[in-house]
Amino acid sequence: MLVAEKLLLIGYVILLPVALRYALQAIHPASAFLSVFAFPLVYNFTLHMGFYNFAYSLPLYGFVLGYWL
Question: What mean pLDDT is predicted for residues 7-29?
Fold first, then answer.
């Protein structure tokens, strides 16, 4: 179970900056470098409290927002 939880968290840590990059490229293609600023947002309070459904909704929101734009 610990390995599965770590894999879940690794997926979240990778997906959040990728989703932000996707959304930023939809706004302006030259602003993709700003996705570096997503890394301080990765480890937030809700992730440490164990709200993994909310944590995975953030990358999903980034992808949906980028697709919509």
Answer: 92
Query: Which residue intervals of 1-69 are DSSP H helices?
Result: 2-27, 39-42, 45-49, 52-68
DSSP label at residue 28 = -
Which pTM value belongs to this model? 0.83
In angstroms, the CA 54 to CA 49 distance is: 11
Sequence ranges of the domains in the chain: 2-68
* Amino acid type, 43: Y
Look-up: residue for tokens 């999903």? Answer: 60
The pLDDT tens digits of the residues spanning 22-53 come to 999 999 888 888 888 888 888 888 888 989 89
